[in-house]
Amino acid sequence: MITGLSAVLIVCGVLFFTAGTAALIRFPDIRSQVHVLTKADNLGPGLIMVGAAVYLGSWSSAALLAIAWVLILGQASVSAHALTALGPRSTTSLAPLTAPAPPPRWAKWGSARTVSKPGTARTAGEPRAPGTSEPRRPAP
Fold first, then answer.
1. Quick one: DSSP state of residue 102?
2. 63: three-class secondary structure by DSSP
3. Alpha-carbon distance 66 to 53, whole Å?
4. Reduced to 3 states, what is the DSSP secondary structure of residue 123?
5. C-alpha–C-alpha distance, residues 14 and 44, integer Å
6. Is 59 helix (H, G, I), strand (E, B) or coil?
7. CA proximity to 95, closest of 22, 28, 23
């Protein structure tokens, strides 16, 4: 009975680790990847260590496993904080590279599209005079 309970707890912990790894590959940005990894890496070792403590049946072993789990929780939070602090400066993701996204629908219009303003017709690429919306005209 105790062996079966500990086996179920250990298998559940391994499944949480596996789900965290799958999410690391699947999620697009660093913040969501770190979020799911910290959740999976906090619960996974907890279940594995509870399963090991049940299997060993010793209070001293359970206390040592609990101390190890608390240290793992601390390391996970510190490393997650350090990784997310680097996130905005870094454009790399832990997700696999994919094909670039197609350009938005409005990109086909280009930069020379007409800007409508009452009384004028000019293009968006035309330089403007500073402080006005009028196009810059060459000096005569």
1. P
2. helix
3. 9
4. strand
5. 6
6. helix
7. 28
Are 52 and 65 in contact by the 8 Å Cβ rule? The answer is: yes
Long-range contacts of 22-25 (CB under 8 A, 24+ apart): 24/94, 24/95, 25/94, 25/95, 25/96
pLDDT digits (tens, 9 = 90+) for 96-105: 555 566 666 6
Please state the pTM of the whole predicted model: 0.56
Pairing of the two strands 120-123 and 114-117: antiparallel
Output Rg (C-alpha) for the chain, integer angstroms. Answer: 29
Q: What is the pLDDT of residues 18-75, one digit of tens each?
A: 888 888 888 887 778 888 888 888 889 899 999 999 999 889 999 999 999 999 888 8
Question: 33 is written with which tokens?
Answer: 């990847």
